[in-house]
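Module 6 notes. Inverse folding takes a fixed backbone as the condition and produces residue identities as the prediction. Think of it as a translation problem where the source language is geometry and the target language is the twenty amino acids. Below is one complete input and output pair. Work through it position by position during the lab.
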């Protein structure tokens, strides 16, 4: 007498648990990537309600030391200060392959407008777009 099995073994592999894990990892990395602050310098930015949708690839920060009466310039939040004469060549190097060259200016609230205008003149000479960073109100 031949006994037959009623259930057959299926060689298929269920991918539903694997897709759940990938989806959770994707959400985790999206949330943690928005928490990264590209500006490492502590600056008191002026406040504004306007927001811009353009993303700058390079940032130039101006730090003011009122007790010394000096200013330091930092590119991409680097703690190492860059002399003003070296900013234009550095921007040209960083933005040369960009199809829409844009950089943002992070200026301390106490920085005179003349220093900001000097950076804007660099942008005008090289036909760059400029974003003036502000703190939200």
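Target side of the pair, the amino acids:
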């Amino acid at each position: 007498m031949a006994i037959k099995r009623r259930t057959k073994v299926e060689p298929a592999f269920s991918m539903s648990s694997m897709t759940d894990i990938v989806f959770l990892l994707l959400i985790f990395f999206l949330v943690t990537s928005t928490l990264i602050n590209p500006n490492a310098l502590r600056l008191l930015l002026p406040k504004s309600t306007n927001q811009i949708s353009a993303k700058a690839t390079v940032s130039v920060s101006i730090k003011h030391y009122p007790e010394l009466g000096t200013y330091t310039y930092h590119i991409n939040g680097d703690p190492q200060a860059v002399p003003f004469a070296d900013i234009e060549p550095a921007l040209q190097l960083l933005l040369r392959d960009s199809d829409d060259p844009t950089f943002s200016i992070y200026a301390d609230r106490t920085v005179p407008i003349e220093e900001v205008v000097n950076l804007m003149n660099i942008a005008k000479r090289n036909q760059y777009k400029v974003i003036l960073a502000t703190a939200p109100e």
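Reference fact for the lab report: The two ends are 85 Å apart (CA to CA).
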